[in-house]
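In this supplementary section we document a worked example of the pipeline. Step one takes a protein sequence of length 140 as its only input; no multiple sequence alignment statistics are reported here. Step two produces a three-dimensional model, which step three serialises into structure tokens for compact storage. The input and output of this example are shown verbatim.
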Amino acid sequence: MRLMSRGGGAVPGWLVALSVTSLLVTLPHSFEDFVAGVPEDYGLTTLSAGGLLALVYAVQVVGILLASRRVRLGYWLHLLIGLFWLFGSIYDHLDDVLLAHPYRAGLPSKALEVGIMAVSAGIVTLSALALRGGRGTSSG
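The serialised model returned by step three reads:
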């Protein structure tokens, strides 16, 4: 993957790379949430929570494809997905990261949560920069 490409700078390439990285932290963390019964804490069945998670990942993959082609909709999708993961992880897990000890699998569990927060903040930032910079086309 070319992170530096002609005519648009490096932001879209870094956004795509960070988005793919987010899959590597959100997926195992989501599995851990399912095992810990988090969907039930919010009144969801495992099946409905799994369906919602699949929808979120589908939107993210579409965002990756569009952003890699420098289509502005891909940046907007990333902004929304980044905000979803960032605020969701802060709302549901910030107290666990800061106060819970022991917590689930210990340091690996906390590292996944901090990783989600950090990667999501990066996705939000890069999406906003890409949108502000006018990088991308309005259509595919």
